[in-house]
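#onboarding

Welcome to the new folks! Below is a worked example of what a typical request in this channel looks like: someone posts a single protein sequence, and someone else replies with the predicted structure as tokens. Don't worry about understanding the tokens yet, we'll cover that in week two.

Example request:
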Amino acid sequence: MAEDMAKNDIFADDKIGREPIVKFICTLVDEMPQGGKFCMSLDGPWGSGKSFVLDHVQSVLKQNANNIVVKYDAWENSYYSDPLIAILSCLLDDVKEYLSKWERIKDVLKECGKKTINALFDMEVPAGFPAEVKTAIGAIKALFNLVRNFAKPVVSSKINDFKSYQTLLSDVKKQLKKIMTATKDRSGCKLVILVDEIDRCLPADQLTILERLHHLFDIEDCAVIIAINKQQIEKSFNALYGGGSSEYLRKFFDYNYIIEPKSDTFFVNKLSDIVNTGKEGDQRQPVEVGIIEVVKEMFFAKAKKTDNREIERWLDKLRKVYDKFPDELRNGGNLLVISCLLVLRCYDNDQYKYLRDEKGKNNDGYIDIVNLLNLNASSSLYVARSAVDALNGRVTNYYLTALNYANEQLNLWSPHGKSEYERFIDRSWLSRSLMSSQRLEMKWCFDTINSASNGD
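Example response:
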């Protein structure tokens, strides 16, 4: 499996080094002995990249024709009366896809002049085909009828009845075993269940989903990987039942893999892609690493949330603004200016409006980005300042020069008696690469930022 991953480029979008986690999970599945089973939690806070890992695990495992890979999005399927029906529906779809790729099923479809496996449900398999083919088709048909019948409102209410629930679980497991046994010529069929977005469901629903998964997939040759925020689920359980969450969750999971957000790394790598690469993959003039670090400091100092999803949301807005710049204006200095304004637009709109609407009219003093963005004493900007002697001033001077540059530009556009909408930012020095005769028109800059931030 590791070799298969090396042959493709599915990790080109991996900005925080998740490939080793994907490789670990896939190896665990590959090396699961015949008749084995396990359930793993992929534990991390919301926005830590759990969905990214599951998506790539799915892509890698599907490269092996022996794997039945089922992806269940709990939030996307939350409209069902009971999560068991949603789980079974996803299971049915992916099992049908698995069987449709089996050469023997392809032969049956060709012989019968049919295109999909559903078309075989209402007919007999022609004579001459092996018994295991008939067994597999009969089992998928039975599974289809089980899901269809229990999806009906009157019948689905029976799930709460213990006997009906047990019967349904038993019937589903029986048909799954038939399918996996019938296709054993594939050198070891394995069922892999990937569960995502439980975090977004209601607290009581989260617990119900875990119970359904535990009861349904406690079968041989099955691996279940569930993305969760264990801390959140424990909190939900304790609120509902008064404690005991750790013991409750321990019965579900054989392995627990903690996934760290790595938000700093994610921000820097994503921003570097945005400013250095165009929409079509064309390379732009690189922006200095120091500028990217200053933008990161701005965001983390002011943003209300700093998980990877919020980072991606904010950077998407920044890309919309930066991509509209003409090539000659795409540089570190202008990136710093628009980043400052966009941080305020998203996380301190009152300050943003003050700068946009009042600063030019009143001309009431110099803008200080450090104070404006509430950068605190723990910020690396201040750490750098305190390390002047040790670093011979190099890091400190770069940060301060970058901030002073942005301060200059934010103050230049609105001198006394002139509206900021009538002014241009003059080109100034930050490094030789920034020297240009081009000027940034501030009304256009504000309008572009507002357009990118609509809905906030």
